[in-house]
Structures are given as C-alpha cells and as structure tokens.
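Lab manual, section 2.4: Encoding a predicted structure.

Procedure: take the sequence of the chain (197 residues), apply the prediction step described in section 2.3, and record the output as structure tokens. A sample record is shown.
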Amino acid sequence: MKTDPRIDAYIDDKAADFAKPILRHLRALIHEACPECEETLKWSMPTFMYKGKILAGLAAFKAHATLGFWNESVLGEDEKDRSAMGQFGRIAALDDLPPRDTLIDLIRKSMALIDSGAKAGQKSSKAPFTVPQDLQAAIDGAPAAKATWDAFPPSCKREYVEWVTEAKRDETRTKRLNQTIEQLSEGKRRHWKYEKC
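Recorded output:
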C-alpha cells in the first residue's frame, strides 16, 4: 500500500471529528479495491492515483465530507447527488455512503475506465433548452437583439434563457427580459462584465 503521510495529517489534523471515520473508511476501501493505487494531495485534498491518472478524491469540510471519481461516467446521471462536490453529495456519517460492495465495484469500474483509456473529467452535455415564448417574442421585436441572438452559440443563448426563467416573481422576470433585450441589442453576452477586454 503506497500511502502518503500528508493524507494522515489531513485526516488527523485538518478533518473535523465526524469526518475522520468517513475518510479512513473510504481510504481503506480504495486501497482494498485498488492495491496498486498511490496517494497524493491535489488541490490540497487526498487524491488516489492509478497508473498515473486520478482514480478518486476525498475532501472534508465543516459539516460534510465528499468522495468523487475523476471519471464521472462511473455513475449514471440519475445516480449522482450534486448537492456537494463529487458524486455522492454531502456525506455526514458512514450511513450516508453506499454499501461497501457497491463502493468496491465503483472503484474497480473507475480503474477499468482508466485501463480502457477513457477520457476523464468530462461532464456530460446539458439537455436541450427551449426559449420561452415571451423571451422569443421580445427578441423578435428588437432587430438588433435578434441579430445578436441569431449569431450566438447555444451556450450563450442558454445563459440568457436560464437567467430569465429562474426569476421567481413576475416583476423580476419582466426586468430580466428587458435587460436581456437591452444587452442583446448592444451585442453583449449574458456575463459580458466578466469578459476580458
């Protein structure tokens, strides 16, 4: 077992008391399923390497711990809990983890993906989106906004659609619709303030 004393220090000195048994349990399972893995720290968090590739990583926060496989296809989209980093959501106790055999199988699946040369770290593409009628009507009614909209790639359109549709009140939605048309008429992307000049 190739361990790293920095991981011991992370668990013993940095992790909250509730997280220590969780991290120790996960660490032991990863080594059991993948005896040839090597430990290291990446982004200041315990990381397990297999054949030079990231197999999985752990982290501990104030009120939860996380486990994440580098190749997200280890789990199907419907199996992932996105309430925290990784694919298992906020782990506050050992009972929050899948059963031992399930975790062993997932670790081995992650190893098999590395063995097969599968690309890691790629997120699945987002589902298609629909432009709401009120937004489309507003765009169609402003020629400059429509020209910008038609030239945008889908990702830029999605940002505006999500921003408008996430409004909880009618007043907020109307304000965002108006601001969208104004920005589109000026040729601006949704997050234009953060783009490099």
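Check your result against the sample. The radius of gyration is 23 Å.
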